[in-house]
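User: Predict the complex with flavin-adenine dinucleotide.
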Amino acid sequence: MKISELFNKGTRTLSLEVFPPKTSEVFDKVFAATSEIADLKPDFMSVTYGAAGSTRTYTTAIAENIEKKGVTALAHLTCVNASEATIKDQLANLKAAGVENILALRGDLPAGVESTDDWIYRHASELIPVIRSQGDFCIGGACYPEKHPDAASLNEDIQNLKIKVDAGCEFLTTQMFFDNNLFFNYLYRLRDAGINVPVVAGIMPVTNAKQMERILKLSQAFLPRRFVSLLDKFGNEPEVLKQASIAYTTEQIIDLFANGGDHVHIYTMNKPDVAAKIQENLSFMVPSCKK
Ligand code: FAD
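Assistant: Here is the predicted structure with flavin-adenine dinucleotide placed in the model:
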């Protein structure tokens, strides 16, 4: 199913993100975890794409399995330093795997690269026409309530986002955030700028303090005091942190739904138990969470 059709139904959705392995040795383990997450039957599942396409066959294999299990898959695709042939090849593979939804991304610049001027595709908006030329895909894109790190200002970032949406991006998924006010203010600014596509709130349950340090640094997300306390106090007690984090995430999602958000995407970090618990907590609020 196309994600745009799902959003047209007007019901609240909860979708889940998984990532492929970096090496073949752990493929079976990661594949099994993503398969278990698909068994939760979320509204849809996204599968990330390794930097510069290093794990692209894994992304396809995992997305194909998700579709086979009857769950809509959203495959990520980046264009950083990619050739037209590689992109077309990946799109053909995804199409053959039954994938109808693509998240069009630029990707992070490799270390030491400061400019994309010499590249064929410099922005995600330039990838979108290629995707459109290769099939009837529903196309999404990324957005940043706290501004993309490369942009000089949030205003400039939103103007660039408008170019991406006008190029054919049918929905947006946000970078993770931990303070809902940032999301509500951002949504207001997007609507004011004439960006009216559905915006999916990307939410991450932080269940492993060490692993999160790197991710939080990368995303540069603002951390509310209440959230920092969880990490400080329970960082060395994994089971306690997990429980506290699931509760924090659930509360954050309920507040989003209560104040105008309709679609939430969970960065599951490939943890089926965490995703299942959050679904359980929302079983009356989100139709796909009711078992
Ligand atoms: P773009 O939309 O191209 O924006 C990048 C920067 O360029 C911004 O500062 C923007 O303001 C500016 N810009 C955009 N268009 C223009 C224009 N026309 N003219 C001038 N400036 C412009 N990375 C991965 O490697 N694999 C993944 O699977 C992955 N999944 C992600 C999923 C989500 C939901 C998010 C939020 C991020 C994900 N990322 C992933 C990270 C992403 O690739 C990086 O954040 C990357 O740096 C930017 O990608 P983008 O598609 O947002 O880029």
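The chain has a mean pLDDT of 95.
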